[in-house]
């Protein structure tokens, strides 16, 4: 079993241990095993984050930016910056043929990747800074269809429009 360095892994591991012990008809061990599993996995998660990459804050309640995410990936892309993989959602700033996009990966099984952009370098840097600081993202996701990507300022005025 592979677990991610995220708190949701504690629940997954506990559930696995409970199912195995129930299958072995060892219900008498479930409570102790659940506690030990919680402690072990929690300690492992705390030890997995080296604190080298930025950790974007959670939702702040302030609407600052709206990004439309699409499943359409750039043809070729190079990672310029990224957030820490200890979070459930990892963001990466990508350069792709003179334009810039942001990849958002939900670390689930299987991982789900979506993309926002394309932007110029200046627009991408602005969006990246918002993600790393205080952005609350209202997400519109299209898993199988390509949507038009757009970014608006707080006043609602489009900053960039373009097909993904």
Which key terms come to mind for this protein?
single chain, alpha+beta, two-stranded parallel ribbon, 3 helices, 29% helix, elongated, disordered C terminus
Distance between the termini: 36 Å
Give the count of helical stretches: 3
- Indicate the percent of residues in helices: 25-40%
Q: What is the mean predicted local confidence, pLDDT?
A: 74
**Count of distinct strands:** 8
User: SS-based structural class?
Assistant: alpha+beta
**What's the gyration radius in Å?**
20 Å
Order of helices and strands: HHEEEEEHEEE
Strand composition percent:
25-35%
Spatial order of strands in the largest sheet: 2-3-4-5
Contiguous uncertain segments of 5+ residues:
135-164
**Sheet with most strands:** 4 strands, antiparallel
Q: What is the global morphology?
A: elongated
What's this entry about, in short?
The chain has 164 residues and is an alpha+beta fold. It is 29% helix and 32% strand.
């Amino acid at each position: 079993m592979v677990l991610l360095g995220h708190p949701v892994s504690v629940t997954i591991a506990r559930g696995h241990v409970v199912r195995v012990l129930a299958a072995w008809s060892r219900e008498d061990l479930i409570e102790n095993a659940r506690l030990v599993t919680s402690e072990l996995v929690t300690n492992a998660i705390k030890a997995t984050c080296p604190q080298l990459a930025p950790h974007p804050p959670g939702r702040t309640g302030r609407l600052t930016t709206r990004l439309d995410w699409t499943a359409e990936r750039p043809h070729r892309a190079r990672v310029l910056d990224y957030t820490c993989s200890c979070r459930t959602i990892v963001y990466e700033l990508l350069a792709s043929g003179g334009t810039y996009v942001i990849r958002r990966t939900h670390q689930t099984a299987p991982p789900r990747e979506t993309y926002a952009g394309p932007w110029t370098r200046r627009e991408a840097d602005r969006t990246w800074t918002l993600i790393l600081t205080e952005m609350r993202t209202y997400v519109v996701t299209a898993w199988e269809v390509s949507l038009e990507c757009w970014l608006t300022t707080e006043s609602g005025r489009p900053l960039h429009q373009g097909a993904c």
